[in-house]
Design goal:
Helices cover 30% and strands 30% of the residues. By secondary structure, the protein is α+β, with helices and mostly antiparallel strands. The chain has a seven-stranded mixed sheet. Strands 6-7 form a two-stranded antiparallel sheet. Strand 6 (119-122) and strand 7 (128-131) form a beta hairpin. The protein starts with 11 loop residues before the first strand and ends with a helix. It has a single domain (12-168), classed as Glutaredoxin, CATH 3.40.30.10.
């Protein structure tokens, strides 16, 4: 499992882009993780799935609500990572009003989740391999804080915890 002091695994995540520009076409665009985190402070949070109850009612809304405070604390970008495709993440982002606040990053094949060792097997519930619920503060591609939730819990990966950690760095 990834830990504080480790570099994020190499690979890419996808994001659904609504407006063409800055070298991005409309639709799913792949982003190299190392390039996308280089020289930046990223508040990254991951969750089991788009449109699921805790994720939609608490996790994403908390980061949307605290986006300005996180940016004021030195965070360059906020990423929500989930084992869903970029189309689903894009639609969910529209529903959650994340534009300009939280980047909805798709880990469609769970490659990133597997590479971090932070997987959650929900096969018995018909959801397959997913990401565990967690948050991490990443500086220039290196994990500075890591907050992994116990199964079924939502206590340490919330936006308020991330904000406190961002302010203490």
């Amino acid at each position: 499992m990834i830990k504080v002091g480790d570099r994020l695994p190499s690979g890419s995540l996808q994001e659904f882009i609504e407006v063409e520009g800055n070298g991005c076409s409309i639709g799913p665009n792949a982003f190299d993780i190392a390039q996308a985190t280089a020289g930046k402070k990223i508040a990254l949070f991951a969750l089991p799935g788009a449109y699921t109850p805790t994720c939609s009612a608490k996790h994403v809304p908390g980061y949307v609500e605290k986006a300005a405070e996180l940016k004021a604390a030195g965070i360059d970008e906020i990423w929500c990572v989930s084992v869903n495709d970029a189309f689903v993440m894009g639609a969910w982002g529209r529903d959650q009003h994340t534009q300009g606040k939280v980047r909805m990053m798709a880990d469609g094949s769970a490659d990133f989740a597997r590479a971090t060792g932070l997987t959650l097997d929900l096969t018995a519930r018909g959801m397959g391999l997913r990401s565990n619920r967690y948050s991490m503060l990443v500086v220039d591609g290196v994990v500075k804080t890591l907050n992994v939730e116990a199964p079924g819990k939502f206590e340490v990966s919330d936006a308020a915890t991330m904000l406190a950690q961002a302010k203490s760095l």
